UniProtKB/TrEMBL annotation:
Keywords of the record: Signal
The keyword Signal is assigned to this record: yes
PROSITE patterns tied to this protein: IG_LIKE
Signal peptide as annotated in the record: 1-21
Record's protein name: Ig-like domain-containing protein
Chain ranges of the Ig-like domain: 1-70
Superkingdom, natural source: Eukaryota
Gene3D superfamilies (UniProt xref): Immunoglobulins
Keyword Chloroplast: no
Top-level taxonomy: Eukaryota, Metazoa, Spiralia, Lophotrochozoa, Mollusca
């Protein structure tokens, strides 16, 4: 079984490799799961792929052999492939970024960032909290004042800053 990864809103094109038989007339049929056919050529494309297009697809290629002495026979071959639909991580579209957070010195602030990603990120290193210092961005690491966490579904990360100091009133 083949597996083809494709990003949402792109086109997935699959070609059915085959060798012409005798006679050369060949028919192609494409199936989604075990349901109705959705293609009849050697090449099959899914345009503007959506998450709902993910799943198993089957292609069947067949020919009818008409020998002069024997009865007519059907010859066919089938191949199954899996369309693995993924989307690029992006910030949550219905959550406007908070431009300003109001806190006092020595208080705690919790910053959250939520993404839409399918499949969710696997590795915690995909999230990198950074703090702007002058004109540079510095990566943060867990310590006594900065604690980074990731939600169980791996779609949200939080940065907890304890004992806020003057230098924490910047961009993150």
């Amino acid at each position: 079984m083949l597996c083809s990864a494709v990003l949402v809103n792109t086109t997935l094109s699959v070609t059915c490799p085959f060798t012409h038989g005798n006679p050369a007339e060949t028919r192609f049929t494409w199936f989604r799961g075990n349901t109705s056919a959705n293609g009849s050529h050697q090449n099959h494309s899914l345009s503007s792929v959506q998450l709902s297009d993910e799943g198993y697809y089957k292609r069947k290629v067949n020919t009818t052999m008409n020998p002069t002495v024997c009865a007519t026979q059907e010859a066919y071959d089938e191949t199954t492939f899996y369309a693995d639909v993924q989307c690029s991580p992006r910030s949550l579209p219905f959550s406007a970024p908070v431009a300003t957070v109001y806190r006092r010195i020595n208080e705690t602030a919790i910053l959250s960032f939520t993404v839409v990603a399918y499949p969710p990120t696997i590795d915690a290193s995909a999230y990198d909290w950074r703090k702007q210092v002058d004109s540079e961005w510095k990566s943060l690491h867990n310590n006594s004042r900065f604690q980074m966490s990731i939600s169980n579904d791996r779609l949200q990360t939080n940065l907890s800053i304890s004992q806020l100091q003057i230098d924490n009133f910047t961009n993150f």
